[in-house]
Batch of 2 targets.
Target 1
Amino acid sequence: MMTDPIADMLTRIRNANSNRAAQTKMPASRMKVGIAEALKAEGFIDGYEVQPATPSSTLVINLKYGPDGERVIRAIDRVSKPGCRKYRGARDIPRVVRGLGIYVLSTPKGIVSDRTARRENVGGEVLCKVY
């Protein structure tokens, strides 16, 4: 039984990225699709696709690399954990690597990056940090 599916998703992305794999697959959920959408919107991944299947759908994430094969995602870490949730207000969200990275937040307006949360003046649970 998996106790933290978000951490599993981030670990699969981290492992595929370190192996320079073109894509990675995992069980899909609305939260995972939201995180993938935020990563795509900020340019950290090429795209994602949800493949319907029985009994559960599969999320396929296409990773992105630079022209010389350098990794776009240098690190991806879980911030808020099941045992210790981390919440931030819109004005309290720090910058990651002077704006080169992002925090992904779960807000009342959906799962968004820290830039979108600041623009829409909404806070929430800090899910992960990507740079």
Note: The first strand starts at residue 23 and ends at 27.
Target 2
Amino acid sequence: MNTPTAVDKDLADMMSAVFADHRAKHAPGDGAAARDLPLWQRLTELGLVRLTGREESGGSGAGWSEAAELLRAAAWHGVRLPLAEHDLLACWLLESAGLPVDSARRTVCLLDDSGTTHGVPWASAAERIVVLWQQDGIFRAADAEISALTIEAGTNLAGEPRDTVTADPARLSGTPVPDSVVDGVRLRAALVRGLQVCAVLDRILDLTTTHATQRVQFGRPLARFQAVQQLVADIAAEATLARAATEAALATAVRTGWSGAEAEFRIAVARSCAGHAASVVVRNAHQVHGAIGTTREHRLHEFTRPALAWRAEYGSVHFWDDALTTTALTAGPDLWALITS
């Protein structure tokens, strides 16, 4: 099985340290920090805000392995920022369209036929929004100022901004972009959420293992009870399966340039595995933690709520199950090659 290139340990440690230092200053539940300008500025100074951007346009020129590690570190520490939306989606789209990129914080949205998009991540915290829409059968992209859009605030289950954006394409100066770029945005966004789900599932496993080891009931640690052992084992198995599927999808997507049946199949597998894993992991973790796991003071909710919220974004579990089933039914003799490649 293909796996992403290993990330330099010093870089990974630096990423983790930045987020750990930030969380040390905030109480549980304070992780949605898109408006935390000092943190965003620090990440900018470290070259992490545009980690994968082209160096000639102000980026750091890193790859998806480094980007995945950055997302993992942020999710592990419960810091929620529009890093993926800004770098991997919006700024990448601008570069692909040949449009200039400055230091403004961005997200991206695809308008429907009425000029509206619901559930846009971090729109109310963005300084500009890269807008996609279809006109006369051609997709167009514009780096829109907030003043040119109508934004209605909303949140997801994790308390992150998920806003409704409305625009009049006639007021936007759009640049034509090929369908392959739009497909790239869709697949990148889907896998980003898979990576983030896997990161919080790993953290939930860590928290649950620690709790089961340290919590004493009836004179012995919870981890000594067979029923608890089974719950924790299921968490570990589901989290490992989701991570393996997601890492395989990432390696395939990078190798194929985010296009083709193999990349779509692998991403569908990853999202399906991660989505179903989230159900088991969240349920079992709260069973092991008991009442303490439902309190605001305990950090468990910082990871279980995002797991359930993120698995439903850029395609629900049902959507990716259907996509996977359709591919399997239509692949014919090529199905085995898709599975084993």
Note: The chain has a mean pLDDT of 92.
